[in-house]
Amino acid sequence: MRVKTIDLDELKGYIHGFEDIEKKGMFTKSRRHNRNIAKSDWKTIIRLMSCKSMVQPLDPHNSSKMCSRCGMINAPKGAYYECEFCGMKTDRQLNASINLYLQMEGLTPSPKPFDELMGA
Ligand SMILES: [Zn+2]
Question: For the whole model, what pTM was predicted?
């Protein structure tokens, strides 16, 4: 795996949001998944980022289940997200990222600004 290095001075002046995740609720029956979760050191990444830029912890609750367009809660399966209420279809990680961005900006999901931003 190729690792991209980042010049930490490039991060000054930006606010970076990170989900405030606890590992204990993320373990499943999959040994491989559990190993990857156990090896991940997000707290160190956040600590290092906070030395060079502002870091904002974000509430991860429903970030991957909530529709970033209408705010309704769905039960996505796999890597794909489809809202049963408004019909939005997208990548599950992209949907969660938009929800976290909205949280950072103090906004809630709403169809009109979402459609304007996404050029629907
Ligand atoms: Zn929706």
Answer: 0.78
